[in-house]
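Appendix B, Record 12. Input sequence as logged:
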Amino acid sequence: MSAVDDAELDIERRTLVASMAQHGERVDRVLALAIPEFSRSYLQQLVADAAVRLNGRVLLKPAARVRAGDQIVVELRPTAQAQAFVAEPMALEVVFEDAALMVVNKPAGLVVHPAAGHWSGTLLNGLLAHHAGAAQLPRAGIVHRLDKDTSGLMVVGKTLTAVDALSRMIAARSVERLYLALAHGPWRHGPVADVDQPMARDVRNRLRMAVVRGEGAGKPAQTRFAVLDQTPRHVLLACKLHTGRTHQIRVHAAWLGQPLVADTLYGGRAELGLQRQALHAHRLRLAHPLSGEPLCFDCPPPPDLQDALAQADLQYNPATWWQAVAS
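Logged structural output:
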């Protein structure tokens, strides 16, 4: 059987005729009332996928109005969202694993969770394939995220008890997350720079976050930056998150006037062979959520970042670098 045949088997077609009472109603509302077992957002996605016809013509807008007697044919097909949470075997670099949790080294380029534009091939898909229990957990056990192009360590719960405990620990800021970042120089601050600036979605560009002003304008965000090595053109930073806002290190570094190398979204320039922001989650330290045993994991920078550091003539001591941001 061909792939086309398989797809055809997954499609159910339903034909509806608009009643006199539905004259002037939006198509998506008519569909939602006639097919209540599916969400309105799912039905709107079908319209976007050209799976709905109105009087024989492909419908382009869910807000289109119907007339009494109009015929609507809808193909109830699997959408990308509906197929997002499926197991996909992939090579995960597992740093540590037991019955309760696992620590993975996420490569740059791997999306953590399915979203628009990335409905498959994510870490979540890989976790679903890695162990059977992931399917019974919220977000397959993911309790925090890294940006797609940020590399490094993530902790993932494997049981509901562990997921709940890890989520509470992250909310209480008892999971220590330390990062390495390569920023544009020269560095214009002291050996240690503490940034306490609230953040919110950038109103001018919804893909970006931004430091915001005004009472209640954003969520609290605190980051500590410590200089490990520097030249007039570049600076190697150790970064400690006290909060975990989206793009936090990148936004706070840019706010300091020191955007990360190759972080073009926040003003960085692509150089030193880097095609992604120069940010790596280097250390993860926490108490085991069940036993309380102290756990600490370090992960050296991947080859692209190591090559960039060599080109920039920057070095760090992996045995002591984290002390720069301790406290």
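The chain has a mean pLDDT of 89.
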